[in-house]
Design goal:
By secondary structure, this protein is of the alpha/beta class. It has two domains: about 180 residues, Rossmann fold; about 200 residues, Dehydroquinate synthase-like - alpha domain (Dehydroquinate synthase-like, alpha domain), CATH 1.20.1090. It contains 16 helices and eight strands. α11 runs antiparallel to α13. The longest helix is centred in the middle third of the chain and has 22 residues. The chain is globular and about 70 Å long.
Length: about 400
């Protein structure tokens, strides 16, 4: 293991009716004026969830203002508007109701309120917000996928520049203070949306598992978490109302991306970095960009450590020892990964995802430039030619 420091500062409030504890919890935490942040999804109105949450805040003596302009692949323009609203109304707590897009918008608003310039600076320069000025955030999770409810990472789009960026000056202080997690809230999601989230959280573990660290505790934990996600993803597909499966998947999403499975290793986010450029250019749903890119990333990098891919195939997908050539077993595990993505109703190539293929070189160049010319990824550093090869394979242009 490499040296590490880890602080998971989010308090989980998990189970049936967890969202009903939000008002009392925020009042006890010292909140007085809450920004109720959401995406104006019809579910919030049809289910009565939004009205119930706002009534709960009022019943606990809290003032609130509402902002419902978050969209998938959230844009910086809405964040700027929300920051102005918070400053004008004296907001001192943010309550995000939704999934990763809403939660990341809340983190961006919090950071923007702790910075005197334009919030987009925090994503494109090394300028940093002041953690001491942070407006804290709580989450009522309705869409398990990104794990943002207890992670410090944050992603934001800029529709004007066609960019999708992570905050460069973030850190542990961006983790939400509270995550209210009622698995029953996720049972109303469209099935394909639920399964898209399942694939997203699985990919977060893949990018921690494939590293240059020796096998150990975290590998066993990753393998167990991946097997659980496969099992309960299938259970949700068979019965979207299965509360047990929803419970397992909701918590798995948090574990997958809040650094529980990261200590002592350098994670590889190459598939995410490439996928972000696809989302930025075409507004493609994040989970779909992952299902399109990741199997082809695997085939491009597996020779970097064939033994690790053999272990992955055998431990996660139970591929038997059918060949004396380890590459055959490694590739069978990759094929099984792609087949499971497709079982989860996710596309695994550009054509099935409806993504144009006429700007492949531009996508590759954007991804290659993400880190100022340094390679992306860690398991195998990816330069322009590597990224282009992965994208061409995903586009069927090999």
């Amino acid at each position: 293991m490499n040296d590490f420091e880890l602080c998971l500062s989010t308090q989980f409030i998990f189970g049936k009716d967890a969202e009903k504890k939000a008002g009392a919890t925020l009042a006890a935490a010292g909140a007085t004026k809450v920004l109720v942040l959401h995406d104006s999804g019809q579910f919030l109105y049809d289910s009565g969830l939004l009205a119930a949450v706002e009534q709960d805040l009022s019943d606990n003596g809290l003032g609130w203002v509402e902002f419902g302009k978050v969209k998938p692949n959230p844009d910086v323009s809405a964040v700027r508007e929300a920051i102005t609203l918070c400053r004008d109304t004296g907001v001192d707590y943010i309550l995000a109701i939704g999934g990763g897009s809403v939660i990341d918008s809340g983190k961006s608003i919090s950071a923007g309120l702790a910075y005197d310039g334009d919030v987009w600076d925090l994503f494109t320069t090394m300028k940093k917000a002041d953690p001491a000025r942070k407006v804290p955030e709580a989450v009522i999770l309705t869409y398990p996928a990104t794990g943002s409810e207890s992670a410090f990472s944050v992603i934001l789009d800029n529709a004007e520049t066609k960019q999708k960026k992570g905050m460069r000056g973030g850190g542990n202080w961006l983790r939400p203070e509270y995550a209210f997690m009622n698995p029953a809230l996720s049972t109303t999601l469209p099935l394909k949306m639920s399964l898209c989230g399942v694939v997203d959280m699985y990919s977060h573990i893949v990018e921690r598992y494939f590293c240059k660290t020796n096998y150990g505790l975290i590998d066993y934990m990753c393998e167990g978490a991946m097997k659980a996600i496969i099992r309960y993803g299938r259970a949700i597909k068979a019965d979207p109302t299965d509360y047990e499966a929803r419970s397992e998947i909701m918590y798995a999403g948090s574990v997958a991306h809040n650094d529980t499975l990261s200590p002592g290793r350098r994670k590889d986010m190459g598939s995410h970095d490439i996928g972000h450029e696809i989302s930025g250019m075409y507004d493609t749903i994040h989970g779909i960009t992952i299902s399109v890119v990741m199997p082809h990333w695997m085939r491009h990098v597996y020779r970097e450590d064939v033994d690790r891919f053999v272990r992955y195939a055998q431990e996660v997908f139970h591929i038997p020892h059918f060949s004396d050539n380890p590459e055959d077993i490694a590739l069978a595990g990759i094929d099984a990964t792609q087949a499971w993505f497709e079982e989860m109703l996710m596309p695994t190539n550009f054509q099935d995802a409806g993504i144009p293929t006429d700007r492949i070189e531009e996508l590759a160049q954007k991804a290659a430039n993400q880190r100022g010319g340094k390679p992306i990824g860690a398991f195998k550093p990816l330069y322009y030619d590597d990224i282009l090869a992965i994208l061409k394979a995903a586009a069927g242009m090999e």
